[in-house]
Each structure stands twice: as C-alpha cells, then as structure tokens.
C-alpha cells in the first residue's frame, strides 16, 4: 500500500508518527509508529527515534511528511489589522508583534493565515511566530533523520486541526482542548465564531497542578470575554491518561464553576479512523489520544 | 479539511496566487513532469497521426503509381492510335486515289478518239518535267503518303500527221468531252497544253507524229 502522508510529532519523551492515505475523501490509517527518546538525548538520538518511528509507521521514501514545532516560546495569536494587501500582511504582523514585545530578538519565522476580511475594512488574522533557533534545531534533527518535511506546522494548531477535522456535526459550543503532553501541556480554547484559537502552554517545571488549573480558568474566561457571546463549554483532553488522573481532582471544581456536569471527553483519533482496528490487532497497547497531534499533522500533509 | 494552514517552510503562502503556488512548490519537479507529459503527448499525437494516416498514405502512393502506369499506358495507346489513324488515313487516301484513278482512266479511255494514242498518263508535281523513260506509276498499295500528293495530271497524246487529218480538232474534241465528263471534270481542270511534232519509223514507213502534252490541275 502506498503511504501518502505522514504526521511526525517529536515530543519531549516520544516520537510519534501516523501514516494516512486518502480513499474517496476518507482518511484511512495505514501505520502508527512510536519511539521513545532517552532522557537527556542529543539531536542524534532524537533523529534515531524519528527514523524508528517512521519505519514503524511504514512511511516510505516518497511519503509527504508534515512535522511541527512547539513550546512556550511559540506565539500563536489571533489579531485584527486594518485591511492590508496580502503581500504586506506578514510585514504588518511583524510590526504588530514587535509592538507587543512578542518578537524574539534573535530572529523569528513568521507566518499568518487570513481568517476573515470584514466589510468594515478589518481583517482577522491568525499569526504565528517561531524563534529561529527552535526552527533550526527541528530542521537539523529532521535532516539527520533523512527526512525532508513537506510542511512545518505548529503543534497546538496541529492538535486543534486533528480534533476539529474529526469532530462530528456542527460545533456550537466553545471547545476547551487540554493537551497533557509531557513538558508541553497546553490549553486551547476555540469557537468557530471567534476564528482564532487562544493557546496557552501550562506546564513549566515550577508550575503546580493548582497553578495549571488557574491558568486554564483564566484562559477560558479571557476567551469568553473576547468572544462577547454566551456559549456552552465542551472539555476535551488528550495525552497520557496518568497525567489526566492527577489533574482530574483539581479539575472538578473548575467544571462545577463552569456548570459543566459531564466528565471531560478523552479524544482518541485512532478509534475514529478507519483501518485502526486492523493495525492495532496485534495486542499493542497504544493510547490513541497521544496521537492526536500526529494525526492532525498527517491530515495537513494529505 | 483542516481549518488552520500555517506552514513555516513557506511563510506567506496565503499571499500567493494559485499560479505562483503552482510554480513555487516543487517547481522543478512539476516542470520536468510537464516536459515529460508534453513529450508523451507529442509522441502519442505523432503515433496516432502516423497510425491514422499511414494506410491512406500507402493507398495514395499505390494510386499514384497506378496512375503513372496508366498515364504511360495511355501515352502508348495514344501513340499507337495516332499511328493507326495515320495508317487508316493513308489507306483512305490510297483507296480514294485508286477509285479516282480507275474512273479517270475509264473516262479517258472512253472519250479518246481513235486517231489519238494515249502515250503516257501520270501524276506529277508542278515543276517536274515529264520523264519519257518512266511509265505512269500506279499507286502502290501501302505506299507511304507522307509526300505531298501530285498536283498535276499530265497526258501525253500521240497522233499521226497526214494529209487531211484533223488531229488538233480531235484533240480539242477530246479535251472538251473530258471537260464535260463528270468523272473527270469534277477532279481535274485543264491547265495548259503543248504540241510538238516529230518523226517515227524509217524509210517509207516513217510518219510524222505530233506529241501533245496536256496538263490538268488536280482538284480532287
């Protein structure tokens, strides 16, 4: 079978690869790869883990690979700008980020997406700013692994893409997506009416669970205030189950505050993809929710 | 499919037109593919054209060859026909001459009076002088008629001159009768005549003779 697209999620402890192909507008899972990164590993060790994960996923040489960068230094920000000619949008974004003190001094790579252009002359953008050294390091690792990525996304958006692409029906409520990836936990709040998501990285070495909950609460409150419209909340999480178990107790109070009586939903993309049953039959115990970001990346490459 | 399309490897992609995107993304590969596709298309077109046109082309070549063969055959036939026509024309002329000749001889033999002897009758060209050694040549069968037909009919008439003879009168009557004979008059017109006298025989038997040369213009 020819693999068309591979999403490559290089985390802090694991490299995850998901291979997808398309059949009649439907995504079919054709391979999953998971490889551990030893603690304190250098770039070479990470590159080896990348190779192993891709091999396990059955990614061929011709596969279109989509990778991502992420971390607290990555800025993903919705912004409104006066209507600007498209070739000058990035320049305007750079200026705006610089004005807000969000532009790294050592250089950054910027990209943007025009979400909407209002008739009043305003355009809504999603701006992304990635420090140059972070991008360079990711590309160096990929080059060592012999991978030439077709696209380079940012991790929170890949995660959100994965969830939004696989949701069923129309989503009218505000999505609160909690990613509990080790050393890169984040909360992502999104509503279709808002256009751009609000993204906050949660976990830092000093941060306690209570501080994380407070950060989530603040992020959601801020987003709702910006949205200027009442909408119900829907909490979805993904990542290792053990981290969620540790967080669950603290989260109950917040859920009660939000008047959210349902338990948070675990998002497992592998359970929703066709072909997963066939692949995971051989007794592998894989937590499918950990692959949300890799699935989102693979979908970008399709 | 996915709502967010950030790509840090191609920042500012949203600002590019679809044509620019097409050119920039894997431009070399696409160009090579376009060349290959164009080459294949050209090859396919050429082979299709050749396949479709080669049978009629071969048929056309065969037709041309046949046409050339027919043309040369027609030329040969035309040549043969011309030759045959000439031959038939010659034969026709000959027959006509034969008919004319026999009628002329008949008319002359019927009209000539007993006092005159027809010494020679011949068809001659206008400038040729009478040749006393050659007999009147009857037209030979199958003789080529490429030469111009004789334009004069020449009669050489002999008569004896004696006391009381009226040779000139007989000659005049004879010529008059010939002039009124439709078998002769329609074909010949009296042109001129000439009389000359001479002696034939020896001793007592010698007699004075007059030779009359009469030329008729051939009208036919």
Lateral arrangement of strands in the main beta sheet of chain A: 3-2-1-4-8
How do the SSEs of chain A run, as a string of H and E?
A: EEEHEEHEEHEHEEEHEHEHHH
Number of domains of chain A: 2
Overall 3D geometry of chain A? globular
Which parts of chain A are unreliable, with pLDDT below 50 for 5 consecutive residues or more?
none
Structural class of chain A: alpha/beta
What is the distance, rounded to the nearest whole angstrom, between the alpha carbons of the first and last residues of chain B?
112 Å
How far is the first residue's CA from the last residue's CA of chain A?
Answer: 15 Å
Quickly count the helices of chain B. Answer: 4
So how many helices of chain A? Answer: 9
The CATH architecture category of the domain at 101-218 in chain B equals 2-Layer Sandwich
The CATH architecture of the largest domain in chain A comes to 2-Layer Sandwich
The CATH superfamily of the largest domain in chain A appears as ATPase, nucleotide binding domain
Structural notes for this entry:
The complex is a heterodimer of chains A (302) and B (220). Chain A has nine helices and 13 strands. By secondary structure, chain A is an alpha/beta fold. Chain A folds into two domains: 5-71 and 134-301, Nucleotidyltransferase, domain 5 (2-Layer Sandwich); 75-131, Dna Ligase, domain 1 (2-Layer Sandwich). In chain A, the strands form three sheets. Chain A has a five-stranded mixed β-sheet with strand order 3-2-1-4-8. In chain A, strands 11-10-9-12-13 form a five-stranded mixed β-sheet, sandwiched between helices. A three-stranded antiparallel β-sheet of chain A has the order 5-7-6. In chain A, a hairpin with a 6-residue loop joins strand 9 and strand 10 (186-190). The radius of gyration of chain A is 19 Å and the shape is globular. Chain B has 220 residues and is an alpha+beta fold. Chain B has a domain at 101-218: Alpha-Beta Plaits, CATH 3.30.70. In chain B, 50% of the residues lie in helices and 20% in strands. Chain B has helices at 18-24, 27-111, 167-180, 182-185, and strands spanning 116-124, 152-161, 188-200, 207-218. In chain B, strand 3 (188-200) and strand 4 form a beta hairpin. The longest helix of chain B is centred in the N-terminal third of the chain and has 85 residues, at 27-111. Mean pLDDT of chain B is 82; it is low at 132-136 and 139-146. Classes of the chains: A alpha/beta (302), B alpha+beta (220). Chain A binds chain B through residues 69, 86-87, 89-90, 109-114, 126, 128, 130, 135, 149-154, 157, 160-161, 164-165, 296, 299-300, 302, and chain B through 1-15.
């Amino acid at each position: 079978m020819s693999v068309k697209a591979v999403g490559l999620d290089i985390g802090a402890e694991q490299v995850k690869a998901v291979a997808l192909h398309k059949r009649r507008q439907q995504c079919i899972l054709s391979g999953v790869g998971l490889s551990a990164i030893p603690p304190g590993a250098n770039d070479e060790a990470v590159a080896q883990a990348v190779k192993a994960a891709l091999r396990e996923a059955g990614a061929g040489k011709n596969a279109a690979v989509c990778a991502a960068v992420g971390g607290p230094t990555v800025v993903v920000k919705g912004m409104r700008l006066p209507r600007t000619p498209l070739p000058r949008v990035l320049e305007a974004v750079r200026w705006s980020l610089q004005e807000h003190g969000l532009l790294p001094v050592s250089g950054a790579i910027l990209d943007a997406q025009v979400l909407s252009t209002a008739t009043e002359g305003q355009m809504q953008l999603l701006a992304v700013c990635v420090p140059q050294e972070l991008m360079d390091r990711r590309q160096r690792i990929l080059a060592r692994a012999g991978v030439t990525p077709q696209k380079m996304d940012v991790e929170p958006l890949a995660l959100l893409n994965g969830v939004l692409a696989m949701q069923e029906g129309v989503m009218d409520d505000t999505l609160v997506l909690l990613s509990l990836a080790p050393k890169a936990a984040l909360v992502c709040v999104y509503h279709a009416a808002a256009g751009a998501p609000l993204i906050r990285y949660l976990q830092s070495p000093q941060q306690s669970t209570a501080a994380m909950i407070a950060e989530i609460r603040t992020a959601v409150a801020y987003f709702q205030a910006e949205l200027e419209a009442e909408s119900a909340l829907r909490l979805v999480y993904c990542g290792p189950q053990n981290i969620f178990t540790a967080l669950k107790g603290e989260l109950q109070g917040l859920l009660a505050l939000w008047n959210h009586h349902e338990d948070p939903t675990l998002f497992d993309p592998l359970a929703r993809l066709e072909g997963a049953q066939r692949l995971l039959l051989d007794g592998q115990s894989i937590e499918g929710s950990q692959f949300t970001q890799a699935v989102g990346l693979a979908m970008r490459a399709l | 499919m996915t709502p967010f399309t950030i790509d840090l490897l191609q920042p500012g992609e949203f600002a590019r037109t679809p044509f620019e995107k097409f050119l920039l993304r894997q431009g070399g590969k696409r160009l090579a593919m376009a060349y290959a596709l164009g080459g294949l298309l050209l090859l396919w077109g050429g082979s299709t054209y050749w396949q479709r046109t080669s049978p009629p082309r071969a048929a056309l070549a065969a037709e041309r060859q046949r046409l050339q063969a027919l043309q040369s055959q027609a030329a040969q036939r035309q040549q043969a026909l011309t030759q045959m026509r000439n031959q038939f024309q010659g034969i026709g002329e000959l027959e006509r001459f034969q008919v004319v000749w026999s009628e002329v001889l008949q008319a002359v033999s019927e009209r000539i009076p007993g006092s005159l002897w027809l010494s020679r009758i011949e068809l001659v060209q206008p400038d040729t002088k009478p040749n006393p050694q050659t007999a009147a040549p009857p037209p030979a069968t199958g003789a080529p008629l490429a030469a111009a037909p004789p334009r004069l009919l020449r009669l050489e008439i002999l008569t004896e001159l004696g006391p009381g003879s009226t040779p000139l009168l007989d000659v005049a009557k004879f010529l008059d009768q010939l002039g009124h004979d439709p078998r002769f008059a329609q074909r010949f017109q009296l042109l001129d005549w000439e009389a000359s006298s001479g002696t034939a025989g020896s001793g007592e038997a010698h007699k004075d003779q007059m030779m009359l040369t009469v030329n008729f213009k051939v009208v036919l």
